[in-house]
Design the sequence.
């Protein structure tokens, strides 16, 4: 605790930055997944459920096999299955993707709690991290720069998605379907198929993001693991203007907001702890108000999204 | 070839032959079966009878992709471009051998090379959303040519173009057919396009082929007679000379932003007198929609003032009623009606809350139904009854319903936007007649239209709107199509 007082307010800043890196990973994965899904013209509000399901299944598999990486991968697989369910149901006539998303959100969390009961007690191996702060004499800096492997993967995926949406056949097809489905149909592409595939890929990413919660930070499986990160990540996509690399930066911002309460606590400001804990939610509301207008539509929004119609 | 939708026979045994290298027009009114015919050819619809022969061999085309395989390409009435993508991305998108990873250097080089063989060029890096309608139409055609189509079907390609742009594009198509590279099938209801550009013509009416042949052998009157089945177009409504009335509607320095926050209407001022029609010409997308939305109360202006009868007009329901301001907005199913409510309810939108239609807190259903019956009879709305849902009516009858609601009372100011878009010659004449009689009865009319013929018929004064500004004004007697067309395309 001595070093904390040495660093003073710098300590808060470092703790916020460290927290941002640590907490942002689930936001990042869910928002990347949602970006991909929304680029194809569909909204999947069920990613909160996918996140919790990914956390549970990742933890269970890591515990059963002893490999946290296999856990993360299969958590993605489970997420993709939930995405397939969303995509398939939404491909039926006159089904609203937002309603299906909410149903899937409740279904995913409920199923995870039910199947996850036996895994609350056991301890699964955690995902490894890189100690990039080993050079520093300050423990706070060392703690802040413990970079998790999945965070690095997420950073890579963000750039890969940005590149892929511009430079690959799949990228162009997904954008066409999301921006002008008539054009896609005229080109002979199946709109429901592309959207379902995009929702599956989005679900995969959200599932991997979920495994981070149970396998790294906080690093256990219990029912209170997610506090709405999956839903906030959907807002984050709007603020990031459907740009994967912006998603990365905005995830860090949200992560930092989440870390604010604990960081202030570390310098002894314990008053209003729960108020600071609400920072990410206040940020969500603030961003929504800031980025919305009755007079204009959002720049960059895929025009086939139901929320834009 | 034949096709029926439910009980409606859209296409009734039509046979056609297209020679290679020909420019063949299919002429007909809305609902004559033109679009159905080509959609059967392209594989969007499966014909109930008949078949398609390509180079003498019978082919079944089950979907547009198979159509593409035989070199058939179609340019649609509505753009099939992806607005957020660049010209290059849109061109590449349709290529059959689109590689998994696109090497943009090489793709761009191929596109440049292709453009060199084409009669017109485009900037490959521009996002499609920033292109004018004429450029988009060119890009649609370019896209088809890039795919090496032999037969190009153009479905009403000039609806959104200025007369000059239309001439340019159809001229280019004619040149390409002359050099034998292409066969063009032009679907249209505009006689001028057929007479000026096509080599052969087929006229459809009510799903049947009613005539056709070499364009050189046919006169304008022949074509009109075939199209509508009677001699001549109904005469335009008489214009009664009205004395100069007081200024009824006044816009002063009106500036409006569009959905993207960009200035769409910029410092527009105009005064319209009672008993006068001011026509606003212009290619769609030059701020007309935003202007109408402000006047109809759907959008807030950025700055400027609207005055009706000399008083500032804030577009509330009370003011609309007091000042007798009415509107015929475009796309009535979206802007002026609730498609799932009944015809009677839609007819009562202006006055359902007035004393004659209410009983205390409750609606007087009987009074509303009686009003609906009277209006349906007076405006000859074809509907099973006042209880029918509005969305079940045809386009012409939806427009008649709106007309009945907006024009049956005394009108001081009327805003009309493309009131006859998509309607046949009969309905068009009727609606123009109603607008003219509103004017003759002393209404000030602001008529925003993409149809120059309509403006020349109805307007007392014509202004041209370009990029959000009124750039030219002319009285009706001195109006000249060429000059107006030039202002529609530029400030010059």
Sequence:
């Amino acid at each position: 605790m001595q070093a904390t007082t040495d660093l003073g307010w710098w300590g808060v800043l470092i703790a916020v930055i460290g927290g941002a890196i640590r907490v942002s990973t689930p936001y990042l994965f869910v928002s990347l997944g949602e970006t991909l899904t929304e680029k194809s013209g569909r909204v999947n509000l069920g990613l909160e459920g996918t996140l919790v399901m990914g956390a549970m299944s990742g933890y269970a598999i890591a515990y059963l096999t002893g490999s946290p990486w296999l856990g993360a991968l299969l958590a993605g697989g489970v997420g993709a299955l939930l995405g397939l369910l969303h995509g398939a149901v939404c491909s039926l006539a006159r089904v609203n993707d937002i309603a299906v998303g909410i149903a899937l959100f409740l279904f995913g969390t409920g199923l995870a709690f039910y199947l996850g009961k036996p895994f609350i007690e056991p301890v699964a191996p955690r995902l490894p991290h890189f100690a990039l702060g080993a050079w520093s004499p300050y423990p706070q800096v060392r703690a802040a720069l413990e970079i998790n492997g999945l965070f690095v993967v997420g950073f890579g995926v963000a750039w890969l998605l940005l590149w892929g949406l511009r430079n690959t056949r799949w990228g162009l097809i997904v954008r066409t379907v999301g921006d002008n489905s008539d054009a896609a149909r005229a080109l002979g592409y199946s709109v429901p198929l592309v959207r379902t595939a995009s929702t599956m890929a989005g679900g995969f990413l959200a599932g991997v993001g979920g495994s981070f919660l149970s396998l790294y930070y906080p690093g256990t499986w219990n029912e209170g693991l997610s506090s709405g990160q999956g839903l906030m990540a959907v807002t984050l996509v709007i603020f990031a203007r459907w740009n994967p690399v912006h998603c990365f930066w905005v995830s860090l911002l949200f992560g930092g907001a989440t870390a604010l309460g604990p960081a202030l606590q570390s310098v002894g400001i314990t008053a209003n702890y729960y108020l600071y804990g609400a920072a990410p939610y206040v940020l969500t509301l603030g961003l929504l108000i800031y980025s919305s207008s009755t007079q204009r539509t959002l720049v960059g929004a895929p025009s086939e999204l139901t929320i834009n119609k | 070839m034949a096709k029926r939708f439910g009980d409606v026979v859209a296409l009734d045994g039509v046979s056609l032959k297209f020679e290679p290298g020909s420019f063949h027009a299919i002429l007909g009114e809305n609902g004559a079966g033109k679009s159905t015919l080509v959609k059967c050819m392209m594989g969007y619809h499966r014909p109930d009878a008949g078949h398609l022969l390509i180079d003498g061999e019978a082919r079944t085309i089950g979907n547009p992709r198979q159509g593409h395989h035989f070199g058939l390409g179609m340019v649609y009435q509505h753009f099939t471009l992806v607005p957020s993508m660049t010209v290059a991305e849109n061109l590449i998108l349709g290529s059959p051998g689109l590689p998994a990873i696109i090497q943009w250097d090489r793709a761009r080089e191929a596109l440049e090379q292709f453009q060199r063989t084409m009669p017109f060029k485009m900037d490959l890096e521009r996002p499609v959303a920033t292109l004018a309608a004429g450029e988009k139409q060119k890009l649609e055609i370019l896209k088809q040519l890039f795919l090496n189509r032999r037969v190009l079907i153009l479905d009403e390609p000039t609806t959104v173009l200025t007369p000059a742009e239309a001439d340019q594009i159809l001229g280019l198509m004619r040149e390409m057919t002359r050099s034998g590279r292409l066969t063009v099938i032009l679907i249209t209801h505009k006689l001028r396009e057929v007479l000026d550009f096509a080599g052969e013509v087929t006229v459809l009416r009510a799903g049947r082929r009613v005539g056709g042949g070499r364009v050189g052998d046919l006169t304008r009157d022949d074509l009109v007679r075939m199209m509508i089945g009677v001699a001549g177009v109904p005469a335009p409504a008489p214009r009664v000379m009205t004395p100069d009335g007081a200024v009824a509607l006044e816009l002063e320095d009106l500036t409006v932003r569009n959905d993207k926050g960009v200035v769409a209407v910029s410092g527009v001022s105009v005064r319209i007198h009672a008993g006068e029609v001011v026509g606003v010409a212009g290619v769609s997308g030059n701020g007309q929609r935003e202007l109408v939305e402000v006047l109809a109360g759907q959008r807030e202006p950025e700055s400027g003032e609207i005055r009706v009868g000399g008083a500032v007009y804030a577009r509330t329901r009370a003011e609309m009623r007091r000042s007798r301001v009415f509107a015929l907005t475009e796309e009535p199913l979206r802007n002026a009606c609730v498609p799932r409510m009944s015809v009677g309810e839609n007819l009562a939108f202006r006055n359902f809350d007035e004393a004659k239609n209410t009983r205390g807190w409750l609606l007087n259903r009987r009074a509303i139904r009686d009003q609906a019956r009277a209006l349906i009879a007076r405006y000859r709305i074809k509907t099973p009854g006042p209880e029918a849902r509005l969305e079940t009516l045809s386009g012409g009858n939806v427009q008649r319903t709106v007309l009945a609601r907006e024009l049956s009372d005394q009108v001081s100011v009327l805003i009309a936007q493309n009131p006859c878009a998509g309607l046949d010659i009969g309905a068009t004449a009727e609606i123009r007649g109603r607008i003219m009689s509103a004017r003759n009865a002393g209404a000030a009319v602001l008529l925003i239209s993409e149809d120059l013929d309509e403006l020349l018929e109805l307007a007392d004064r014509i202004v041209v709107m370009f990029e959000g500004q009124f750039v030219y004004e002319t009285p009706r007697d001195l109006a000249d199509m060429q000059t107006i067309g030039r202002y529609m395309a530029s400030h010059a």
Chain A touches chain B at residues 167-170, 172, 175-176, 179-180, 182-183, 185-188, 293, 295-297, 299-300, 302-303 (CB under 8 Å). The radius of gyration of chain A is 20 Å. The first strand of chain A starts at residue 129 and ends at 131.
